[in-house]
Amino acid sequence: MAKLTIEKSTAHQVVAETVDQDRRKLLFGAAAIGLTTTAVASIISIDSAPAATSEAIRPFHITVPEAALVDLRRRLAATRWPDKETVADDSQGVQLATLRQVIHYWQTDYNWRKIEARLNALPQFITEIDGLDIHFIHIRSKHENALPLVITHGWPGSIIEQLKIIDPLTDPTNFGGSAADAFHLVIPSIPGYGFSAKPTTTGWDPAHIARAWVVLMKRLGYQRFVAQGGDWGGHIANVMAQQAPPELIGIHVNFPETVPPEIGKALLLGMAPSGLAADEQRAFDQINLARAKHLSYAIAMATRPQTLYGIVDSPAGLAGWILDHDAKSYEMIAGVFDGHPAGLTRDDILDNITLYWLTNTGVSSARLYWENKDRLLSAVNVSIPAAVTVFPEEIYQAPHSWTQRAYHNLIYFNEADRGGHFAAWEQPQLFSVELRNAFRPLRQAS
Question: Where in the sequence numbering do the catalytic residues fall?
Fold first, then answer.
């Protein structure tokens, strides 16, 4: 057994840097030797067996030291607040009252140990691909002939997004489906996110990740599988489809990339071309508004991700940055903390934010925007079987006409009656039904 002992100045640094050094097993030792109002000194011990080969699949377990959680609460209590916004809405960003509610609950009532136990109850693993440790959850269905499915999260999400759909997809007979609807699930953490390692060199762009997912699925023994994603996960699924590995038989996306070239040019001018159908005009207006009002975070991360030191040093800064993603998601989250239940709970939201904090992945996750050179939302050129679900609270509702032009073998298209950008997280039952319906034609054709 190899033992590694590390000394660091803060528990936050200990967690993040220990995760970087050893993804095989997060057995963080407890021994915090001193806690003051400014720093935590810790000695961390990790015992783990070395991988037999670079292709080995190693079990993974999480135990965050209590000192890291104490330090988090201390930082939350010491938050330095700005003045209140000078408007009565969220046009200047995340409102002070909303973030105060988030931080108060995070500091006083939130319990990380619940999600830690939930994750540890699942089969989690690490494997090295192209020199980088990749973390993933792998759940095999008990049902014969289950269809292997790799599902990818986005930003500012994580594997937390997919936890609610695991049971409905792997065990559909207990959730209104049949054994013929079952999936084997592989849910990886994108490099630089969660418990996957952080790239130390450039080159881990969506195309690289797409190739790595094929390696992962084949390493797990799957010679025939499908892929799904939203946000970055949708783009990665699209790129996988464009790369067209023979093992990939189809994809489903809930954030499709469908904008035709002529519409893209019109968006640059901010003027819609004449003759658009009603759903096309709606999509144009939605994208135009998002570009003008809600995509500043993407511009910052695509151009200057390393400058975002504040979201690494301040949990309040990280929370504010993560909450300010899209208008509808923010509206829902603000309502949840104001006492109006919606698709997510307060714990759901803070499970995800706390995962970013403890793994120190605010900046490393942002670098994916810098690495990407593709034009997001622009119509893809996908020829393998593809399925699309459009959710009403999404950043934009992709028209059927645009979707058919981008996905040349469109086997399923549906406009759901509820759900938004993080659909699997917000509406897990509905989302699970969508995936069953979407991939059913591929099962029948096999």
Answer: 231, 369, 421
